[in-house]
Design brief:
67% helix; mainly alpha
Length: 407
């Protein structure tokens, strides 16, 4: 069975490479805005202003990496830039799988293939791993930061190099997407946990936290300092009325929908959401749309051919794995010292994602990629709670995803 799982992983890697080569530039979330950013950086040789385009506020890591690749290859046309951006997305997605394998060897030995396969077959990772979007790079950097943070937690004594890597990788992930700010919050939590459970000397625990936060700040300042100078704030986004006033004016009719930001919106999906194939067909429930954008191309930006039956089967498989996620988290509580960093990352990410959604005026911004930092912990918990006889489910989902998302 393990060989079959690795064969399925190889198939999904081929899927990503193929799609990154043939996907149209307009595929992906907000790809047109991403291309405007790249054009200004590579062709016009200037960093975009947040008001220059829909994605002008984004942190620079993904665009700088794409610009570096384009410079090395001598690319200038928008089509060539889009292909270079897709290559960066694809390589970042493959790096995420390598990090998952490294972590799984330590936490769930013998089941590494299942963890890697689960991450590889998620439609959300398939989509962002082959399109013009900064989400895949941020996922890879965020997962690598969590791996280093877990290694720092397991170390018997303070290692300054590890603390520095935690801060540097956390800062780079933040420069990929601002949704990876929770990595900064994990650093003081690590300090407190070391004092409470590891009995680490207070001086060492505080020194490690100060070093990691300082390195994080030094890296993140590449984005934060220009924002402070230009806009008199550290964080900006296209949800700020000062940045896009016309956009918020257009939203006035949609701000106060019935049940919007209520307990019902938060908890209860419409019964149609189990089988809905696109955004308008399901009630705007936070967890319904989050689930669908994880297990399906909920916004219809990527899949060029419609296979409703395959799409439905994939999501039914996702529902089946939710139980394994809960079981895995319950089992992890019995060995909290080993699993603590991953539980903290998973719960903190979902909590901040929820708070973020409740402060937004639009109800269509709830996408699973906004909590991409929870993907690797979630895969680890799911496989930890998945019985061995359920492995054919992962294989079946891998085949369905390959069939549905092969362009």
């Amino acid at each position: 069975m393990t060989r079959l799982l690795w064969l399925a992983v190889a198939l999904l890697c081929v899927l990503r490479l193929h799609n990154a080569w043939v996907a149209p530039p307009e595929a992906g979330y907000d790809s047109s805005g991403q291309m405007v950013y790249l054009h200004q950086l590579v062709v016009e040789h200037r960093w975009p202003d947040a008001r220059d385009g829909w994605m002008g506020y984004q942190p620079p890591a993904y665009y700088a990496a794409t610009a570096g690749l384009a410079w090395m290859l001598g690319l200038q046309s928008d089509t060539a830039l889009a292909r270079a951006a897709m290559v960066v997305s694809c390589l970042s997605g493959l790096a995420l799988l390598v990090v998952a394998w490294r972590v799984a060897r330590r936490l769930v030995p013998g089941r590494e293939a299942a963890v890697v396969l689960l991450l590889a077959l998620l439609p959300a990772t398939v989509i962002v791993g082959a399109t013009v979007t900064n989400m895949s790079l941020a996922m890879g950097l965020g997962a690598l930061c969590l791996e280093r943070l877990s290694a720092a937690w397991d170390a018997p004594r303070l290692h300054l190099a590890l603390e520095g890597w935690v801060g540097a990788l956390g800062g780079l992930a933040f420069l990929g997407r601002i949704e990876y700010l929770p990595l900064l919050g994990l650093i003081p939590l690590l300090c407190v946990a070391r004092l409470a459970w590891r009995r680490m000397p207070r001086r060492d625990a505080v020194l490690g936290a100060v070093l990691a936060i300082s390195v994080w700040g030094a890296v993140a300042s590449i984005y934060l300092v220009p924002n402070l100078a230009r806009y008199n704030r550290l964080l900006v986004s296209n949800n700020d009325p000062d940045i896009f006033p016309y956009y918020h004016h257009d939203l006035q009719d949609n701000l106060y929908l019935p049940g919007f930001h209520s307990a019902a919106w938060f908890l209860w999906p419409d019964r149609r959401s189990v089988v809905a194939t696109s955004f308008p067909d399901a009630l705007p429930s936070l967890w319904a749309t989050t689930f669908h954008s994880l297990w399906a191309d909920y916004y219809g930006v990527f899949v060029l051919r419609q296979r409703p039956w395959a799409d439905g089967l994939i999501r039914l498989g996702g529902f089946a794995l939710l139980g394994a996620l809960g079981v895995g988290m319950h089992r992890a509580r019995r060995d909290l010292l080993r699993w603590w960093p991953w539980l903290a990352a998973f719960l903190l990410t979902l909590a901040l994602y929820t708070l973020y959604q409740f402060r937004l005026p639009e109800y269509w911004c709830d996408k699973a990629v906004y909590c991409g930092l929870a993907y690797l912990p979630g895969a680890l918990f799911t496989v930890h709670g998945l019985p061995p006889r359920a492995m054919p489910l992962l294989l079946s989902l891998a085949v369905l995803v390959t069939f549905l998302y092969w362009l």
